[in-house]
Description:
Elements (H helix, E strand, L loop, with lengths): L8 H17 L2 H7 L4 H36 L28 H14 L1
Helix pairs in contact: 1-3
Amino acid sequence: MPSIEVVSxxxxxxxxxxxxxxxxxxxxxxxxxxxxxxxxxxQEKGKExxxxxxxxxxxxxxxxxxxDDRKESIRPTIKRTPLLKRTVPKKNNIPTPTTRxxxxxxxxxxxxxxxxx
Length: 117
C-alpha cells in the first residue's frame, strides 16, 4: 500500500473528518449498539471507514503530485551557482575579551585600584 501524505489544506480537512468519524465509531455508545453479537459488523464498518478515507486521500495525493509535476515542467530550470566565500577580511575583527566577573571579584578589583594609589 502506498503511504499517505497530508500536505494540502484539502488533505488536512479529509484527515480531520476521518479522525472525527473514527473517534465516533470507536466510542462506547457506538460499541454498545453492536455488542456482543454484532462486533464483526462493527469491525467491518471501521475498516470500511478507513478504506474510504484512504482512497480519497490517495486520490488527493495523486492530483497534488500531478499538479506539482505540471508546474515544475512549466517553470524553467534555474541553475544556481554556489555562493563564493568572502575573500576580503572584515575590518572590525578585533577580538573582544569577556568581561564577565562575579560581584566579589569586581569588589576586589576596586579595592586593589584604591590601594594601588
